[in-house]
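Morning!

This is the sequence you dropped in the shared folder:
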Amino acid sequence: MHVFARNVQCSIHHEIGDARFCLIIDEARDESRREQMALVFRFVDRSGFIRERFLDIVHIKDTTAVTLKEEISFVLSHHNLDV
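The structure's back. Tokens below.
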């Protein structure tokens, strides 16, 4: 599963390319009471169409602003995306 997920994430990174993007972040608690943060990228593709792509879901320890910022920064750097 991780190999497939990584391939999809690389495909999304390639699709975004050098385009500007924004992040859509949502966090929720799952059934096991663990906090999760979902990251979705919104960007304009090379054809001029607005696209949204789900990139990752991250388990987080709490929902403080500092923790969310650190996790977002980590995910962006992990995928070599510059803000």
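Headline: Helices lie at 2-16, 65-78.

More detail when I'm at my desk.
O.
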